[in-house]
Write a structure and sequence with these properties.
The chain has a single domain, classed as YaeB-like fold (2-Layer Sandwich), CATH 3.30.2310. The protein is globular. The chain has four helices and five strands. 35% of the residues lie in helices and 30% in strands. It has a five-stranded mixed β-sheet. A hairpin with a 2-residue loop joins strand 2 and strand 3. It is of the alpha+beta class.
Length: 97
Amino acid sequence: MNVVSRHGLKKLTAKHPGTESDALNWFRTAAAANWTCLADVRIKFPGADLIGEVLVFNLGHNRYRLITTVFFAGREIYVKALLTHKEYDREEWKKWC
């Protein structure tokens, strides 16, 4: 998968200390993956959820949500946000759905 962008992901993790390791592991796994559907994603990330084109991952032992948009046919994932549960519950991330 083409993950856009590693630099953006690093900027997001700077706001949430302790997430960098998990985010980097996610990045490596996603970049090496050949996902064609949610079932493929859930092999490595069982807690992932797909809402429209938004693919949500749990990071930091389920303390954070990594919000991405995914285009399986084009093999692209765009990193959008890294949110705490409180930020996630505001549902502002749904603008990418």
